[in-house]
Amino acid sequence: MIESIKKNRLAFLSLHILLVMYILTIFADFISPYPYDVQHRDTPYHPPTQIHFFDQEGKFHLRPFVYGYKMVDPINKLYEIDYSKKYPIYFFTYGEPHYLLGLFKTEIHLFGVKEGKIFLLGADSLGRDILSRILYGARISLSIGLIGVLLSFTVGTIVGGISGYFGGRIDNFIMRVSEILMSFPSFYLMLALRAVFPIDLSSTQVFFMIVVILSFIGWAGLARVVRGMVLSIREMDYVLAARSYGASSFRIITRHIIPNTYSYLLIAATLSVPGYILGESALSLLGLGIQEPYASWGNMLASATSYTAVSSYPWILAPGVAIFITILAFNLLGDALRDALDPKLRRLIK
Amino acid sequence: MILYILKRLYQLIPLVVGITFLSFIIVQLAPGDYLDQLRMNPQISEKTINDMVKVYGLDKPLIIQYINWLLNALRFDLGYSFSYQMPVLELIKDRLFNTLFLSVVSGLIAWLLAIPLGIVAALKPNSLVDRFIQVFSFTFMSMPGFFFAFLMLFFAVKTGLFPTGGAYSPDYEQLSLYEKILDRLWHVSLPAIVIGVGSLAGLVRLVRSTMIEQLQSDYVLFARAKGLPERDVILKHALRNTLNPFITILGFEIASLLSGSALIEIIINWPGMGMLMLDAVLSQDLYLVMGGLYIGAIMLIVGNLIADLLLAKLDPRIRQREVEGVLR
Question: What ipTM was reported for this prediction?
Fold first, then answer.
């Protein structure tokens, strides 16, 4: 399988993009120049600062630098580059203290400026660095996909396995329950389930609430597919063989039947991560998920609902681009996995 | 066919009971109850609230409350919205029309484009056109709907080509019938494009792969061998077989259109069910949440039912299998 991903250049690239993203996320507090909640009230909607190697006179500087910006229109928050001020960028420089990997207290950041400000992707309405917030927000968006998929796939596989293997009344009951869940338009169900929880929760509680809501909606469809697969696998000779030497139902399900669904599950898992990322962003976008000051890609986009803000400060759309790239990578990867495991279509094209 | 329809309707009974029960449970689990909002209003006396408890049967055991609600819900009497001060059904009616209208238009955009584009891509796999369609499809499959909505909204404001928000113009009442229709279509176009393109992206890939598969099959080879013009081979033979599985997908599409439209509605300010549900959740208007959930599910079930009946109409094998299951 890995071989065929390597052959598919786009999927290979996606895999690497995702790996890099997860690594960036783990070291978010080290890589980001500012903590997610530091506000620069004097520079709201600061435009992205470009990194320069050459100055106005065309002179080359080995150490890259950014120009200072000065606000020219405090009402519309418009800025102009102030070419007289140059701030060199330092690497492994001192900044706000943070805990690397949650363990080691350090003040070293990957890069930063000693004076002036560096906003590689601009700043939001409170003057918070968007790049830093995207990196911190990635912690939520990227982990919610994995944890949500893990939870709903565990439940879905076990329930679907039981349903398909035993059949009869249990099967009937489980299938009716999953039908009921699938009869709701998922966004409506998501909103209604959100109403079950109090509006004001701590950020950790909100995180787990979102995972629980999305998994509660997500397990049903999967359970049905697994059930269908189990129904056909159950009739295979090797299951009969296992039964003939007296293996228990539990052993047959977990050792013989479910492992045969792994390849499908892997594809389905890869392709369903985007759903969880989107679910979280949608809830946070509407103010029902992760709350300020904590960053999530969804709640960062809440300010983009105003088109006047978007037209004057287009860089506030950056989190949307981050969501797009992540989802694209997951889709391309899932697609390549599917091609690898189901080569029928590819053969037909050739 | 009638037997088949009856069977499908019979199967719906446990589903509707389950759906209403789940909606009811969800609302019961929510903190606070129906009258909390009224209790906070100092102008409403304790006595009025106690009277309302009696009128709405809120002092009875839960199961009785559920049965009462269910009996009313079957007659589409969905209770009273305390935050809007009007019956839930009245509130939902207009919104429901808007949501259905939006879903139908976006569905049409998606299907009417997906089928020709999918065929064109399938006729020459890996050609330039095919690659272009693939890139388009991957881009919009991965583009979050709300993000696309932001971009389109921005585009609409800059160019003034589309109205931003609302289902019709303020002077709608004075327009002639023909102008009214145009006005509605003009207003629906922006959200419908956003939702339609998102759904088109996924569909076009499916049409393409099914078509490729069909074009390789023996009957296509045979049709070509007996000298049928390529046009007929594709349109009369391959296309028909390609479209069959898509009627099943139609059912799923309805689900994703309804669900996908809810968020877009909120962002583009389209007065549909999605906005109503959000308001209801934010103001803890529980009857409204329950009613919205119920109507949403009913819409989906009816949509799936239509898809099933359509499939049974086109494919007698399915009809026969299902009905035999009943008689046996």
Answer: 0.83
